[in-house]
Amino acid sequence: MIDQIFGVWNYWIVFILMMIGLYIVISKKSLLKKIVGLAIFQTSVFLLYITFGKIAGGTAPILTDNVNEIYSNPLPHVLILTAIVVGVATTALGLALTIRINKAYGTINEDEISASDLVEYHKKYLEDKK
Amino acid sequence: MDNIILKVCTKVLFTPIILFGLYVQFHGDFGPGGGFQAGVIVAAAFILYAIVFSVEDCKLIMPPKLNFFLLALGAFLYGFVGIVGLILGDPYLSYDVLGSTKESGQHIGILLVEFGVGLTVCNVMISLFYSFANFNFRRKNND
Amino acid sequence: MIGEIIINAFLVTLMLTIAIFIINTRKVISTILLTGTYSLVAALMFVSLDAVDVAFTEASVGAGISTILFLAALSYLPKEEKKEKFNVKHIYAICTCTIVAGLLIWASYDLPLVGQLENPVHQNLAQDFIEGSRNHIGIPNVVTSILASYRGYDTFGETVVIYTAGIAVLVLLYDGVSKTSKNNKGKNK
To answer: In this structure, how many other beta carbons lie within 10 angstroms of the beta carbon of residue B122?
Structure first.
């Protein structure tokens, strides 16, 4: 019984964390908060991959002299290792874009950005009509 | 920042952090570690220095021009190791021919490649911090 | 076994709590610090799942550098979010997320149980990599040998991606710096 619960427990938590990240990305208006939501989503996917690689009773994949040792699957570890560093690089890119947007519009609130875009568009339209 | 304790602690800690980074870099074959982690740790030493003293002081010990050069050199080193193998008659990025035996060739190749990764990651992180710290917010877009 | 389950459950609950708190904080600084904590707990989770290299990276990159970058960016951004009223859009978002979470959890019964040796993931390449790392490459850390040798192309691509992202951030934030320094020089003359 307890094995059954432990067997799917990690998946459930990963999915719930994923959906919390998605909720932040969908519903929050602040661009910075959206980047944080993406980071949460990302970490939950990392957790999913590492969970796939786990073997109960195994050790970390660093070879020892014991021939009968069971090692966890090292392949997901490699994929995620590089993904984490790429993730921070893309986060930095997102932050740079946010700073640029804040400089151009004076706000990082999504609604206010699209509102000021709309105002600009109508101003241009009226000028063209004249 | 004008806190004498922070300044002295940073001066004491700066070298051991870089030493630890190098340990992680070159001990990555035998324990947890490797280019990605080592690059970040070494970058953390420079960022600590830049936070406690100032970005201008940090630019004296890591000038932006050197930073850009090393940034490109790391990725270049990675590709170059592959090309050397290609010239010596092996598939791209397979390191068998780099040493006298296959095993030593693999060792040399992995060491060089990890060093390239470490250089790139370290310098990307430092240049990210520089560009975030130096961004001039007040200036208008039009002038 | 039972100890492992308790540690796992504790860390997972901590992650959930932090994630739920992140939704509702409006002060940006506490959002950023909570994100750093979240990464740190995730690193502990990776250690308990036998991924030491990943834990090392997550602790240094996710909890260290990305927090610093967020804080550096915060100095140019508003320190507090605007208050939002709870409206229909939030209900749509909650409904979407709940439905997708329900579907995923339903699908999770078709996934193999965690930690079984006979799972499909462990059947194909992993054993070859471990044996090859012992006999052909001679490096004890299997992760390093896969990272640099077996999947060298992959890592090369990732390095180039990091390089490109670094250059892109420089381009996005650089022109202000160069122009002001030129202006200052002009003023000094």
So the answer is: 29
